[in-house]
């Protein structure tokens, strides 16, 4: 009834920044760009300061469950948006809050997440999401900034952004 969440892990920095990443190939993780840079004043991410951790709770992971990040690639549209919105992220209005994380070593023993075949997303279908991070609600804000558990939810996929076409995002 639920998908395999074993490729969903925590991206954790030496400074205590936490986000969710999903293993999509043995040494490639997809995540949100705002985790690494949510304003123009934020420095570029230093890959060696980050680990991808496949354990819950992530702070109790063995060294064998921690993978060193070798490179962080932010979606160019996300970086462009920062410079055009007063230096702040936009809450991902345009669907470009994406980053690819390359790991120094391949993950073994965990199969990467299965992506839709032939790029066909299940529009109108139920999707199950999971990850690590802070629990928040729209009225009161953060409910648990120290949250170390995996959390999840169910939603219906109502749209797919194939190509971002907006004057504020360069096509290059």
How would you explain this protein's 3D organization?
The chain is built from one helix and ten strands; from the N terminus they run βββββαβββββ. The chain has one helix at residues 76-84, and strands at residues 8-13, 18-25, 28-31, 50-53, 66-74, 99-103, 126-132, 135-137, 141-144, 150-156. It is globular, with a radius of gyration of 16 Å. With 172 residues, it is mostly beta strands. A hairpin with a 4-residue loop joins strand 1 and strand 2. Strands 1-2-3-6-5-4 form a six-stranded antiparallel barrel. Strands 7-10 form a two-stranded antiparallel ribbon. A two-stranded antiparallel sheet has the order 8-9. 5% of the residues lie in helices and 33% in strands.
Secondary structural class: mainly beta
Gross morphology is: globular
The total of beta strands comes to: 10
Gap between N and C termini:
41 Å
Summed up, the helix count is: 1
Low-confidence stretches: none
Mean pLDDT: 78
Helix proportion? under 10%
Q: Largest sheet, order of strands side by side?
A: 1-2-3-6-5-4
User: Over the alpha carbons, how many angstroms does the gyration radius reach?
Assistant: 16 Å
Strand content: 25-35%
Biggest sheet layout:
6 strands, antiparallel, barrel
Order of helices and strands: EEEEEHEEEEE
